[in-house]
Specification:
alpha+beta, SH3 type barrels, Alpha-Beta Plaits, 3 domains, 5-stranded antiparallel β-sheet, 3-stranded antiparallel β-sheet, 15 helices, 10 strands, elongated
């Protein structure tokens, strides 16, 4: 993007210069910033349509090389403070190339309009007027580009994706719109300052500032793309994989924390800091920090284990050794459970990851097991009949799984003939589960009554070996 905008700026200046004169009729303007360094008494002024000889072109080119070499030498002071970087050399070269194009452009205008010569040679507050004019042209071109051309491109993309029902891509380009426009304006400001600033050392400092702000805009764009990506993943997995939402949220936090960390390192690097020493010190300090916060780290990895294994998710009904309730939240350090007495229990993830967890919400069917006790006065035919009646009741109930129920006369109890009944309810929530049990129980009671049977209850008989005479007092 930077190279493209630089080429656009150079092409813009070159195209405007070609309107007034050809490149062969151009020489550096006298008393301009580059001409002040490259001009000498032996350099004749070129005016009008006179064509330069090859010898004169070579001499002018040699002068420019001397100026470029001098600018490189003068920039060493800034490099000694900030550290030598390849981007600093490129910054100086780009500034020099832009100024050469600007000099040619202004010279072509002078040849057409000689009365502007004094304006181009003058200074305002110590700044060369020609550089200010060039900076104004570049800034105007950049503003028009980002305000109309780039904005129009993003609008056209939004309309195209809107017609194609590609809302995700439409939102993606919408997220990138503001960072892109800000970056284009930053490029325009950078190229404008290149034309205005004459001190090579200041050009290097300006380049460092530019790259720092450019990196900040880049991290801004990545931040918005990160939010967009995690939002899309969350929307797609919200209904099918609720447990994965916890991992997505954890990934969002870790990614943003890593972005902030690397952003700080990049900023320090642009300021000339020794990143290697900083990373090494972080390694030593990280070991001490890890030892001091081992419980926190254990909880963090416990949360990763819970999210990866997915023993439960938010909203599940779970039972542990000592806690039973509904999961309200899974954090990086702990998990919150709302118990049925409506209290909120917080359990560290490191502990929760190492204990058995019974997840009742994962039941596809909910079991009912009960024993029906009938009196010993019941006959064999009556017992066989009531067993068939209960089987019929369960098979006809739509809320009972018809293929898994079991009904058998199993035991001779201490005071009853026991029939074991096992069946599974299709709906596992408490309200529907208890409603199904109630309906089945009422139908079983009705069947028992129709068979002329009665339910047994714990009782005992007492037999006396010696009859006891009970005297009654007669009323006279």
């Amino acid at each position: 993007m930077i190279n493209i905008m630089r080429k656009f700026s150079i092409l813009f200046l070159a195209c405007m210069a070609s309107v007034f004169a050809s490149a062969d009729q151009i020489a550096p303007a006298e008393n301009s910033p580059a001409a002040q360094e490259s001009n000498s008494e032996n350099t004749p002024e070129v005016s009008g349509p006179k064509k330069l000889s090859p010898e004169k072109k070579a001499e002018i080119r040699k002068k420019f090389e001397e100026v470029k070499k001098k600018m490189t030498t003068e920039a060493h002071g800034a490099e000694e403070v900030l550290g030598v970087r390849e981007i600093d050399s490129k910054q100086r070269e780009e500034a020099f190339d832009l100024k050469v194009k600007l000099f040619k452009f202004l010279k072509s205008i002078e040849n057409k309009f000689p009365f502007l010569r004094d304006l181009f040679k003058s200074r305002i507050f110590g700044v060369w007027t020609g550089g200010l004019i060039g900076a104004a042209l570049v800034m105007a071109f950049t503003w028009i580009f980002q305000r109309y051309i780039a904005d129009t491109i993003f609008k056209l993309l939004a309309r195209a994706f809107d017609k194609a029902n590609a809302n995700s891509l439409k939102e993606f380009f919408s997220k990138l719109s503001d960072p892109t426009r800000a970056f284009i304006m930053l490029l325009g400001i950078n190229f404008g300052l290149m034309l205005v600033i004459e001190d090579p050392a200041k050009v290097v400092v300006e380049g460092r500032i530019f790259w720092g702000v450019a990196n900040a805009i880049g991290f801004w764009a990545i931040w918005r793309v990160c939010d967009f990506t995690f939002n899309v993943i969350t929307d797609r997995l919200a209904d099918k994989h609720k447990t994965a939402l916890n991992l997505i949220d954890l990934g969002r936090r870790v990614t943003k924390s890593a972005m902030i960390f690397f952003g700080v390192l990049v900023a320090l690097d642009m300021c000339g800091a020794n990143i290697g020493a900083i990373v090494a010190s972080l390694g030593i300090g990280g070991a001490a920090l890890a030892f001091a916060s081992k419980d926190t780290i254990a909880n963090f990895f416990g949360s990763i284990s819970l999210v990866a294994d997915r023993p439960f998710s938010v909203g599940d009904w779970i039972v542990t050794d000592s806690i039973e309730g509904i999961v309200e939240g899974i954090g990086i350090r702990s998990t919150k459970i709302r118990t049925f007495p409506k209290t909120l229990v917080t359990i560290p993830n490191s502990l929760l990851a190492n204990i058995p967890i019974d997840n009742w919400s994962k039941m596809n069917l909910r079991r009912v097991k009960m024993t029906i006790g009938l009196t010993y006065s019941s006959s064999t035919d009556q017992m066989l009949g009531i067993v068939k009646d209960i089987e019929k009741i369960l098979s006809e109930n739509k809320e009972v799984d018809s293929g898994t129920f079991i009904v058998n006369f199993t035991d001779f109890g201490p005071s009853s003939l026991d029939i074991t009944v096992i069946y599974y309810c299709k709906r596992i929530d408490a309200k529907n589960y208890n409603a199904t049990r109630q309906a089945v129980n009422l139908e079983i009671m009705e069947a028992v009554e129709k068979r002329g049977l009665s339910f047994a209850f714990p009782s005992s008989s007492v037999y006396l070996e010696t009859p006891v005479k009970i005297a009654r007092e007669k009323d006279d």
